[in-house]
Amino acid sequence: MDVPVLESEAEATTVAGAPVPSTTDPLWWRSAVIYQLYIRSFADGDGDGTGDIAGVRAHLGYLKELGVDALWFTPWYASPLADGGYDVSDYRQIHPAFGDISEAEALIREALALGIRTIIDVVPNHISHEHEWFKAALAAGPGSPERERFWFHPGVGPNGDGMPTHWVSNFQGETWTRTTNADGTPGEWYLHLFTPEQPDLNWNHPDVRKEHEDVLRFWFDRGVAGVRIDSAALLVKDPELPEVTGDEPAGQHPNTDRDEVHDIYRSWRAVADSYPGTRVLVGEVWMPDPVRFTNYLRPDEMHTAFNFDFMARPWKGSELRESIDSMLAAHAPVGAPSTWVLSNHDVTRTVTRYGREDSSFAFATKRFGTPTDLELGTRRARAAALLSAALPGSLYVYQGDELGLPEVEDLPEGTRQDPMHFRSNGVDPGRDGCRVPLPWAGDHPPFGFSAGTDVQPWLPQPEDWGRYTVDAEAADPGSMLSLYRAALTIRRTLDGDESFRWLDSAPDVLCFARGGGFVSVTNLSDRPIDLPEHEEFLLGSTELVNGQLAPDSTAWLRAQH
Ligand code: GLC
């Protein structure tokens, strides 16, 4: 194993003439730009219609040029893909469609040589029903030690045919599935907060704790710079299995955000801190209460967590201002930087969402046929890209957002894969529409996603995506890609500065100053506005009109300081 070095190696400052971000800075994560790479849909190196590590390695130059500091890979492990890989059957193997461990090691090394770190996904709440542990638990039967790693439970009632609780799944529907005993009789039930193919682990069991710490070490030993922690607030359950009432005191919900969950992240932090360089823990924590949320970011727990509050807000000045204020205020006491996220592999694409009358995001309101003005959505997404990139903290860019890809809502019948869609009986469109393979070049599918023209990508791309290809956008200075490239270059000049100060403005205008005289102004009102005093106009999401900033636009300025 050829282990990449994150910290002590002599730091290259340029690769092929381009500046390389520091790979030695222990605080790199506080202001990093992290590209979320959904590997199945990024680039297909071997021509089977599924993205893979070979495809990523072939396009590292693209990511370098975009200007990102790190890549977060959604799960790339062995998995039956019942939930797009969030059903892991073996953490120490790469899914054969994506590559193998040696390719992953090579990728980590090659990316680092370009100054790009690698973050992997860990899914501790559950594993795949095809994981050895679960297969052993089913085989070993009721009362066995193998079953204690999960939540097996007898059913309620004389025949045991009532499920132990009526907790509702995050994917809708039931959270318990009944097993069948070896003799064919109905057996115990097991808990799954997501699909039946994702049995929940019992985090009171020492094997579960030790195994995950070993998995962290396995990947840290291979040079990964951090882990994104899936469904991080769900791990600990009340062993009494009470029903959810909805009025539990904070920290005492039967399966979400229980106080004991923090011990797990303290021990993970100790593992991360035992490695040289900063190996970061990034939490997926959906939590409406900002203080309960930032509890996960206390100095001995995670480094950062996704700021879904900002992501879910509608395109409205007062809403975004309130979110920025409450998030910065909640982060301050724990000393953690905020993150800024506009979308990910679970939510509606940014240009689509911002083009709707209700531009907030909620899983419960996703429906087919919602009217969308893509032109307006794209204009706002451009403004939002600059707004979020100007805020202090780390920035996440979900692959394809830099191209302005819309949500694909008319996937052909029979091509959808997402269990969220099926478990809602087809009412929820599901998440396939934001996971469609990237268009790289050309005028017809697969648009350079796969080499060869006759390959069918695992999810079909719309015929008219020629205008969104990397090639087309790279050649167009007015494209979303050109905007992102310019923005990330300028953002780098902030050089880790974490200062933030609102400047006076109308309520529907978000205007703030950062270090070095950097000023960002976003116009969410319905009329053009004058720019604040400045020395230099750095970048705009739209052209100025008569020197004014048009509605739904952001400008970056340099003021005297
Ligand atoms: C997280 C992931 C999502 C997955 C779920 C279950 O929310 O982001 O894609 O389906 O966890 O693992």
Can you put this structure into words, describing what you see?
There is one protein chain. With 561 residues, the protein is α/β, with parallel strands linked by helices. The protein folds into three domains: 9-126 and 208-222 and 281-408 and 434-483, TIM Barrel, CATH 3.20.20.80; 132-191, Oligo-1,6-glucosidase, Domain 2 (Oligo-1,6-glucosidase, domain 2, Alpha-Beta Complex), CATH 3.90.400; 497-558, Immunoglobulin-like. The protein has 14 helices and 22 strands. The protein has helices at 53-58, 60-66, 101-113, 132-140, 206-221, 261-273, 290-294, 308-312, 317-331, 350-353, 374-390, 419-423, 470-474, 480-492, and strands spanning 14-15, 18-19, 33-37, 70-73, 77-78, 90-94, 117-122, 152-153, 176-180, 186-191, 226-229, 280-283, 304-305, 339-341, 394-398, 501-502, 509-513, 518-523, 529-530, 536-540, 548-549, 553-558. The protein has an eight-stranded parallel sheet. Strands 16-17-18-22-20 form a five-stranded antiparallel sheet. A three-stranded antiparallel sheet has the order 8-10-9, with no helix packed on it. Helix 5 (206-221) runs parallel beside helix 6 (261-273) and helix 11 (374-390) packs parallel to helix 14 (480-492). 50% of the residues are buried. Mean pLDDT is 95; it is low at 7-21. It binds alpha-D-glucopyranose. The site of alpha-D-glucopyranose has 9 residues, from loops.
